[in-house]
Design goal:
Belongs to the TUB family. With 402 residues, this protein is of the alpha+beta class. The chain is built from ten helices and 14 strands.
């Protein structure tokens, strides 16, 4: 097709009556929930400005739809009442990990999934680093598809998650180090980040039982306040660019840039900082008003000892089939602040679950199903990017924990 014919075809689609255009996209959104069929919704958004505007009005975020439609969906919270089921494929030969969205109940058997994120592990003198990218092959900090990283201490017991996007202004973010200081000046564009932003800490507790006991962990989500789990609570500072730009390029959706190594030397693995935040979040002495502003703390769900099997067990509801020290389930470490007004009525899924309190629901679960295959199921308030980074921390060897 020559350029004139192509422009004519685009103009014809662009001039569709808004009512008809709305009906077409609604039918696509409501009738197709799996990939690759659902890629047509994304294709509609790339045709012209009017189509993109209509998609933005119709296509909902993962929190309300339970679907990952556009690249920016990977950094938006998952659904509240269900989980998004994914799996991670590990390649030990090149130290890479690939995250896929499950497309069917039998996705793990046939490895049928839509690629979401990738990560590459690099072992340094004093730490281990996982670079996270939206590209399955080009996994490096110099790539435009780089969206964050995970860094550990020497023992592999403490981790920091870095995001290329700055968190919301009210987030309780640890102060940056001297060489990674943020510059708030009018001469710097607010749309361009100056470095990697510390959004979460992960700590694995020392295991006094040795190999007989499961790993214990805490995740401090600095970019998610405790109030997010309260009735009517939200995760502030979510990315607003729901749709890909005209170029329909995955890399343009996050507008991330590469950073000089001199910009991200602030690594604080202080034990006192971890203990202070976790202790305050779970303390009854902290006023509710202050506690609601504190970062959300996640902890691993306590397993039960099975006498017949002589092992620690968790109910993964069929999503995990192989026992491993890496397996875990995360729940909120503290209940949300009780609201003074009556809570909203339970949804149908909540009613079927017996009205389980929000802080007792499994927010993230990770487990082994094959030699190099692992499932990852997450829900609100975590995003796919945050959940993937937390799961990557489980792959690292922990000299003091096992």
């Amino acid at each position: 097709m020559d350029s004139g014919a192509y422009q004519g075809a685009v103009l014809m689609w662009a001039n569709l009556p808004p009512e008809l255009l709305c009906d077409v996209i609604k039918r696509l959104e409501e009738s197709e929930s799996t990939w690759p069929q659902r890629k047509h919704v994304v294709a509609c958004a790339a045709v012209c400005r009017s189509w993109r505007t209509m998609c933005k009005e119709i296509v909902r975020t993962p929190e309300s739809s339970g679907k990952l439609t556009f690249p920016v969906s990977l950094k938006q919270p998952g659904p509240r009442d269900t989980t998004i089921q994914c799996f991670i494929k590990r390649d030990k030969s090149n130290l890479t990990y690939h995250l896929f969205l499950c497309l069917s109940p039998a996705a793990l058997l046939v490895e049928n999934g839509k690629f979401l994120l990738s990560a590459k592990r690099t072992r340094r003198t004093t730490c281990t680093e996982y670079v996270i990218s939206m590209d399955a092959e080009n996994i490096s900090r110099s790539s435009s598809t780089y969206i964050g990283k995970l860094r550990s201490n020497f023992l592999g017991t403490k981790f920091i998650i870095y995001d290329t996007q700055p968190p919301h202004s009210g987030a309780s973010i640890p102060p940056p180090g001297r060489s990674s200081r943020r510059f708030y000046t009018k001469k710097v564009s607010p749309k361009v980040p100056n470095g990697n932003y510390n959004i979460a800490h992960i700590k694995y507790e020392l295991n006094v039982l040795g190999t007989r006991g499961p790993r214990r962990m805490h995740c401090i989500m600095h970019s998610i306040p405790t109030s997010a789990l309260a009735p009517g609570g939200t995760v502030p500072g979510q990315p607003e660019a729901l749709l890909p730009p005209l170029s329909n390029s995955l890399s343009d959706s996050f507008r991330s840039i590469s950073f000089s190594k001199s910009l991200d030397r602030s690594t604080d693995f202080s034990s006192s900082r971890f203990s202070e935040i976790v202790g305050a979040a779970m303390s009854n002495d902290v006023p509710d008003g202050e506690k609601s502003k504190m970062p959300l703390v996640l902890k691993n769900k306590a397993p039960r000892w099975h006498e017949q099997l002589q092992c620690w067990c968790l109910n993964f509801k069929g999503r995990v089939t192989i026992a491993s020290v890496k397996n875990f389930q995360l729940i909120a470490a503290q209940p949300p602040v009780v609201a003074t007004v009556a809570p909203p009525p339970l949804s149908s899924s909540q009613a079927q679950a017996g009205g389980q309190p929000e802080h007792e629901k499994v927010i993230l679960q990770f487990g082994k199903v094959g030699k190099d295959m692992f499932t990852m199921d997450y829900r609100y308030p975590l995003s796919a990017f945050q959940a993937f980074a937390i799961c990557l921390s489980s792959f690292d060897t922990k000299l003091a924990c096992e």
